Amino acid sequence: MNLKSLKGIHHVSAITANAKDNYDFYTKVLGLRLVKKTVNQDDTSVYHLFYADERGNPGTDLTFFEIPRAGRTYVGTNSITSTSLRVKTDRALQYWKERFEELNIEHEEIKSDSGRATLFFRDHEGQRMVIVSDEKNVGGSGGTPWVKSPVPKEYGIVGLGPVQLTVSRPERTIHVLTNVMGFREIESYKRVEDQRIVRVFETGEGGTGAEIHLIEESELERERPGRGSVHHVAFRVENVDELNKWVEKLNEHHLPNSGFVERYYFRSLYFREPNGILFELATDGPGFEGDEDFEHLGEKLALPPYFESRREEIEAKLKPLETKN
Length: 325
Fold this sequence. Notes:
GO terms for molecular function: dioxygenase activity. This protein has helices at residues 19-29, 90-102, 170-180, 240-252, 311-317; strands spanning 9-16, 33-40, 43-52, 61-66, 79-87, 118-122, 128-133, 159-167, 184-190, 197-202, 211-216, 230-237, 261-262, 266-272, 278-286.
């Protein structure tokens, strides 16, 4: 089977307990653009919000399912334990540090664990996040910050960076990453705060937007997800033909999976790696402008055509969320 390598991180999806507070933080504090306000296609009673660069280019999407009754996250192993957001330069991290101080956002000091300047912070619900500099990036490029963002363009977030996985049995995850998904192990480094070894895997062109950072943690119990936890990470597939080949490959490796799933804005395939973390493979297109024009992305509740006949019923279950640009 002639299968192309995965191109990098496509999106990361997390959980929020309050869509309005989430919208305020990610647009007004982080300066991302809401490119799509829609619903969870597996549970249309809750919002699914997509934040990204100016038009939601693949590799820039950070998405949230609203679960109003979501409790706190009990941090543990076999989970996605941090999501990083790319900026263009090391200098940008100083801007973000000062911005977080001004807005009373929990954060640490700027440091360099893996040779890149990084700044750890938490959002308003405790989600573990990192601003990471692209200054030394030699892989795939990032996106373009939205011109109407409250953050100056030169400091704006240009996409998703490395995703950190913490697992109890790393050899099982590594087998899937390397032998099934085609990732390459390229290096390891020690975290400054605890001297833990982090193993780095890359795919496609490599670089900031195409890496998984893996940590072993066998002492803790499995993480119990809640508000501020990450639901899944998705990886980029070029098109539908390639996605169908991935369905075949997962079946050949006897990995239980969803098969082809229509998401309208992209097409998907879901499976869990052996430590239980949910992975998705998602196509680069069609994108977010099929049902809204560029200037008005995210302003109205967007529904895929197969849900449009249920719009009145769906809207009645949702708390109104004002999202004018």
